[in-house]
Structure formats: structure tokens, C-alpha cells
UniProtKB/TrEMBL annotation:
Protein kinase domain ranges (all copies): 142-412
Organism the protein comes from: Bodo saltans
GO molecular function, one term: ATP binding
Entries under Pfam families matching the protein: FYVE, Pkinase
Protein name: Protein kinase, putative
Length: 492
């Protein structure tokens, strides 16, 4: 322990760890993997993750006649870049130094710094974001079973905060953000969500990072995604028109706020990016990964994007014409979001897609012919519902319905008074769901406690003293053949 380079570092005992800190490979008796301490951070690694390094002259280890010492890959970075490393109980390096250095670098230099080594890529220090030692240090209830969604950028978990409230935590693995351009896109998404102050738009509550992850804490739509809510409404035989009108009106209000107040276009409206409260009375727009700022009302360049089947005619035409970028004004992109909202409403009421082509050329032809709410699936849908949906699905943006047209449409306004029937029925369902969820949390807590007990037993079996004790020398005062430390008598 006295051969550590930094006295404040905690030397991790062998009995506390049964796997490599980095690669998680198990230290089993038959695996021939040995435990090795990093002389910089005191943590335990396998031979591959903490290789021997030659010692420079003048280090404190020279008095022990040591010419080599183990150094984990994370400690290969200069200490000023190790803001994530915790030393002692409450001590860690100040991240202000590396943030100051990065503030003088342009994007290309920061990108080169990120790509300088594998450790820097995996543990990139995000500027102006506080550190926690681990995800569980901030949210003890975050575990694999709490996952509610997964995307290209990260995994979303439903967790309970210290005050008992439920929140959504989006965990981004730093190693999967391969370039600084990817980080800039992520920073942009965080910046967009930080300023959201509308009931129908999800907002960020907190952002923190660990050595290898970035965590974004957001408001939770406890009712789940619109896709999930649709299945519940269909199964419970609720009035689908009233439910759809409630969703369409609130999403339109959120899109109107984003464009006219914050100058933002979402660009990926679909079922998965709309969530609801438990009683379905509140609807929120989420996932701003493709969202963009509208710099002015004049034309600016946009990259064609969106989800196939929900993409607007403006994006479809750019793809058909094989354009990597196209020019459009902010209002046209705002109307593109409203077209996608029309697709969502069409699918909720008919159970089918308005754009059925498997290729963008086929979908482009469908839009030019005009999209209509007709056929056997629409026989029991009101004319007012068909009117607003067809208005949203108009090809030319100048003729398409605006957000104000949607919010003030009689079909949407009438649903406000009729929605109370669905809301009251959902309240009864919520009480049952809360009881079931409470039982799940108790089960998880018990499983975590049992896991910790077995872990303690397994660690006791690994103790050198216990392993060297012959069967006949076990303590007779300990009943049941268990060692005084609580572990089982080791087998030989």
C-alpha cells in the first residue's frame, strides 16, 4: 500500500473485487487471471488492462528498487485530463484545468485531442458538466431491468430520484461517440432541451457525467410512448377520436412553441417521440436528436432527415433528387413537422400508413396524387377529423394547416370536454399499476440485498486465510460449517 504514487489514493483490497475494473473479466481459480493493482489509482485490473510500465527516474518507488510498476490504461492520460478520477473519500481532480485548455482549442484541435488515444476516446471530459463516481452514486435504482428504451445515441432508464419522483435518464456511453462532431450534436440537443418551458415539450432536469458515461435526466412520460398508449386505448375500447384529437392538439401546441418562441424545428415527429402522462391528459414531445435552430426566416441549408413513412414531402423530394442538402426557410421546416403530425393522426384513426410506398420515389408520387382519408377504415370517423388530417397532409407547405389551425379546429376543441371520461377511467387503472410497480420496486430491492449477501459470501471464500485453512481446523464454535466472517467453509 505504501508503494502508491499518490498517498490520498485508496488501495482497493483484493477481497472487494472479483473482476477486472475495466474489462470485467472474472478472477476465477481456473481462469489463470491474476489481480494487479494500478500504482496510480489503487484499483484492481487484469494483466492486460494494467501492463507493466518502466519507472522514470526520481519517482518515490525508486527507494524500493522497483524498475517497473503497473499502470492502468486510464492513468496513461496526463493528470490534468483525469478530472474523472476520484482520490480518497471525497477528493478528485479539478476539471477546470482541462476545460480551460479546451476553451483555447478550435473544433479540429479538440477532435484530434479526443482521437489521441483510446482512453481519451472512452473517457472524454465533457466541459461544464459535473462528475459523479458512478451512475449508481447518483441514482441507486438505475439497473439493467429499468431500461425503457434504446436508441443509436444511448439507453433510457426509468429511475426513482431521491425525492421519490420518477425521471427518465438517458445514458450515453462516451466510447460510442466516435468524433467531436458527434459531441457537438449531443451538446446541441442538450442546449435545445435546457431552454424548454412548455407543458407539451420535454425538458432537461440535470446533466452529469462519469468517467465513461454522460447522463441526461429528463421529465418522464409515465404513460409511456404514444405507440404503447395506442394499444391501451384500443384494448380498453376508449373513444379513439377523442384520444387522437387530444394528442394532435397538444403536439401542435408544442410545435408552435418550439418554432415561434424558440426558433426550433424538431424534424422527427413520430409515435416513438411522443410520450404521455399516466392519465394521458398531458402529451410531451421528446428526442431532439435531429432538431435544428432556425437562424432566420430566410432560406438556409438542411440535411434530408426523418423516419421513412413520417418524412415530409420536402425531405422526400430532396432524397428523390439525390441532394445531400437542400435549401428551405424555417416556416417550411415547421410545416414539415406538422405533416409528420398528420401522419401520426392518420395512423391512430385508421391503423394504416398514408404513405405505403417502400421507396421514396413511390412515396413522392403518392404525395403528388394527394393523400385522402377514404376507404373502409374511415367509415366510422367523423368528417371534421378527416378534414383536419387531410389538411395536414397537403403537399405544398403554403396550403398546409398551421399549428394555430390545428389548436383552434372544432374537432380538437370539442375533444377537451369529452376527454374527462378517458381520464377518470385511467385514474382507476393508475392505482392498480402503482400497486404493481410498488411490488416490483420491493422485489428489486430484495434482489439487490440478496445479491450483496452472496457477493460477501463469495468474497469470504476467496480470502487467503480461509483458503489455507485445512478442513479439520475450522472453528468449532461456528455452527453449520461456516467461517466466523460469514462465509462458507472453503472446499479443498
Amino acid at each position: 500500500m505504501d508503494t502508491l504514487l499518490y498517498p490520498c489514493v485508496r488501495w482497493v483490497p483484493d477481497s472487494e473485487v472479483d473482476s477486472c475494473t475495466k474489462c470485467s473479466s472474472k478472477f476465477q481459480k481456473l481462469s489463470f487471471k491474476s489481480k494487479h493493482h494500478c500504482r496510480h489509482c489503487g484499483k484492481i485490473y487484469c494483466d492486460k488492462c494494467a501492463p507493466l510500465q518502466p519507472l522514470p527516474n526520481g519517482t518515490p518507488w525508486m527507494k524500493y528498487n522497483m524498475t517497473q510498476a503497473r499502470k492502468c490504461n486510464a492513468c496513461q492520460l496526463p493528470r490534468i485530463f483525469q478530472a474523472h478520477r476520484f482520490y480518497g473519500e471525497n477528493t478528485r481532480l479539478d476539471g477546470g484545468i482541462v476545460e480551460l485548455i479546451m476553451s483555447f482549442l478550435d473544433d479540429r484541435s479538440v477532435a484530434r485531442l479526443q482521437q489521441s488515444c483510446a482512453t481519451m476516446l472512452r473517457q472524454f471530459p465533457v466541459p461544464n458538466v459535473p462528475y459523479f463516481e458512478s451512475l449508481q452514486a447518483r441514482f441507486p435504482t438505475l439497473f439493467a431491468g429499468a431500461q425503457i428504451g434504446r436508441g443509436a445515441c444511448g439507453t433510457v432508464y426509468k429511475v426513482e430520484d431521491w425525492d421519490g419522483s420518477k425521471v427518465a435518464v438517458k445514458v450515453v456511453e462516451k466510447a460510442r461517440v466516435y468524433s467531436y462532431y458527434g459531441w457537438r450534436k449531443l451538446f446541441g440537443e442538450i442546449e435545445i432541451m435546457r431552454g424548454n418551458e412548455h407543458v407539451n415539450v420535454s425538458r432537461i432536469l440535470e446533466v452529469f457525467q462519469t468517467a465513461s458515461h454522460l447522463a441526461i435526466i429528463m421529465e418522464l412520460g409515465e404513460g409511456g410512448s404514444l405507440k404503447r398508449a395506442y394499444e391501451v386505448v384500443r384494448k380498453k375500447h376508449y373513444d379513439m377520436e377523442v384520444f387522437t384529437a387530444n394528442v394532435v392538439g397538444q403536439v401542435a401546441a408544442g410545435l408552435d412553441y418550439l418554432y415561434h418562441t424558440r426558433k426550433i424545428v424538431h424534424r422527427d415527429i413520430k409515435h416513438d417521440n411522443i410520450v404521455l402522462s399516466k392519465d394521458y391528459s398531458r402529451v410531451m414531445i421528446i428526442d431532439f436528436g435531429l432538431a435544428e435552430w432556425v437562424r432566420d426566416d430566410y432560406k438556409q441549408k438542411y440535411v434530408p432527415c426523418g423516419t421513412m413513412g413520417f418524412a415530409s414531402p420536402e425531405n422526400i423530394q430532396a432524397v428523390v433528387e439525390r441532394k445531400t442538402v437542400f435549401q428551405a426557410n424555417g416556416y417550411a421546416m415547421h410545416e414539415s413537422d406538422l405533416f409528420s403530425l398528420g401522419v401520426v393522426a392518420f395512423m391512430l384513426l385508421s391503423g394504416s400508413k398514408p404513405l405505403r410506398g417502400q421507396r421514396f420515389t413511390e412515396q413522392h408520387a403518392e404525395v403528388r396524387r394527394g393523400l385522402r382519408c377514404s376507404g373502409p377504415r374511415w367509415q366510422h370517423v367523423s368528417d371534421r377529423a378527416k378534414h383536419i388530417i387531410e389538411w395536414l397532409l397537403v403537399g405544398p407547405t403554403i396550403q398546409r394547416a398551421t399549428a394555430a389551425d390545428v389548436v383552434q379546429h372544432p374537432w380538437v376543441l370539442d375533444s377537451i370536454h369529452k376527454f374527462s371520461a378517458i381520464e377518470s377511467d385511467r385514474i382507476g387503472e393508475i392505482e392498480l399499476e402503482d400497486r404493481m410497480e410498488g411490488d416490483e420496486w420491493v422485489f428489486v430491492a430484495n434482489q439487490m440485498r440478496i445479491t450483496e449477501e452472496w457477493k460477501m459470501i463469495e468474497e469470504d471464500e476467496w480470502c487467503d486465510d480461509a483458503a489455507s485453512t485445512p478442513p479439520g481446523d475450522a472453528d468449532p464454535s461456528t455452527p453449520g460449517g461456516r467461517t466466523p466472517g460469514g462465509g462458507r467453509t472453503p472446499r479443498h
